[in-house]
Design a protein that fits this description.
The chain is an alpha/beta fold. The protein has a domain of 192 residues: P-loop containing nucleotide triphosphate hydrolases (Rossmann fold), CATH 3.40.50. 29% of the residues lie in helices and 23% in strands. It contains 11 helices and 12 strands. The strands form 2 sheets. Strands 6-7-8-3-9-10-12-11 form an 8-stranded mixed sheet, with helices on both faces. Strand 4 and strand 5 form a beta hairpin. Helix 4 packs across helix 5, helix 4 runs parallel beside helix 6 and helix 5 packs across helix 6. The protein starts with 8 loop residues before the first strand and ends in a 29-residue tail after the last strand.
């Protein structure tokens, strides 16, 4: 983990929306949209790891892909290292690619089975540099050393490696162009539990040595607690809570974050016996037709009348802690309180 010297934000996301059109009928007319991400704003500071958690289908991976413009944004801005990638022309975006990279969820699916390890790791160098073969080979060997792969495996194919080794190949490929920002999209989800810790420790070690900044997307709350500096909790395309890691796990503020963290097992048998599970009733609404007001109002155990009418805004309710919930409004009568407006800058994350 970085030494916690939080500098200016490397990544600034404002009002990010990703809506996918729904077409129907013979003429394939647009009849609606799936609101996969619906107005998300946050900052990621240089050298920081921001964890992004939430249940399946809440829009976590879509946020990660939109940040790197693997999708064309419906609305909003994503400023990475001073440039808004949402508005960059194709040529400018290509030049920006070395700054931002991605480690994908399934190492088996994200590696070309017809390419050797050396060719996979060296592909970004082929695309973005004019280096000769000797320099590329030296860089590939250097990257293999960094992620703990034996150089003798350079001419082997992905199917000859274990899942953990394949993920190391994906990490080496992401590091090839010396990026500043890496989106880790559930990088341990497809791995055995015994291998997960190795990959996470590798990511932490690389961050310390290379000064990397991560968006770490995961549904494994225990692993996020280990690696993240701050944590954003997503529900149905929106951020419910954004807090420093220790503060969130000690005392979640949003009812959804509270329910989510109540499911994390405690290793201490005494504490585990006292753990109170919060079981949410009902199903997650469709992102094509979210409820009016707060998108969590259909399942929230603390729902109020205002929740079904007025959409809460992400607001700073304690130093460094942002929550989108009417429970924290100065007045719960539906009038917008000063604390209910989104602040344009998420204040600096707590130093670790």
């Amino acid at each position: 983990m970085a030494d916690g010297a939080m500098k200016s934000p490397l990544v600034q996301v404002r009002g990010l929306k990703m809506h996918f059109p729904i077409h129907a009928g013979l003429l394939r007319r647009k009849v609606g949209a799936v609101k996969a991400v619906d107005g998300v704003s946050f900052d990621i500071f240089e050298g920081e790891t921001l964890g992004l958690v939430g249940e399946s289908g809440c829009g976590k991976s879509t946020v990660g892909r939109a940040l790197l413009r693997l999708y064309e944004l419906t609305e909003g801005s994503v400023v990475i290292d001073g440039e808004d990638i949402a508005t960059l022309a194709p040529d400018a975006l290509r030049k920006k690619r070395p700054t931002m990279q991605m480690v994908f969820q399934d190492p088996q699916a994200s590696l070309n089975p017809r390419m050797t390890v050396a060719a996979i790791i060296g592909e970004p160098l082929d695309e973005h540099t004019g280096w000769d073969a000797a320099k590329k080979t030296a860089r590939v060997y250097e990257l293999m050393d960094q992620v703990g792969l034996n150089r003798r495996f350079a001419n082997r194919y992905p199917h000859e490696f274990s899942g953990g080794q394949r993920q190391r190949i994906g990490i080496a490929r992401a590091l090839a162009l010396n990026p500043k920002f890496i989106v880790c999209d559930e990088p341990i989800a497809a791995l055995d539990v015994s291998i997960q810790a190795q990959v996470v420790n590798l990511l932490e070690d690389l961050q310390d040595r290379l000064g990397l900044t991560y968006l770490f997307i995961s549904h494994d709350l225990s692993m996020v607690r280990h690696i993240a500096d701050r944590v954003a909790v997503m529900y149905l395309g929106q951020i419910a809570e954004l807090s420093p890691r220790e503060a969130l796990y000690a005392r979640p503020l949003h009812p959804y974050a509270e329910a989510l963290l109540s499911a994390v097992p405690e290793p201490d048998p005494t504490m585990e016996s006292r753990r109170q599970r919060i079981i949410l009733k009902g199903d997650v609404p469709s992102p094509a037709n979210p409820p009016k007001g707060c998108n969590f109002c259909t399942r929230c155990p603390k729902v109020m009348a205002v929740c079904r009418e007025v959409e809460p805004r992400l607001a700073e309710v304690e130093p460094g802690r942002f929550v989108a919930c009417h429970l924290f409004d100065n007045n719960a009568g539906g009038q917008a309180s000063p604390g209910a407006e989104v602040r344009e800058h998420n204040q600096q994350g707590e130093q670790r």
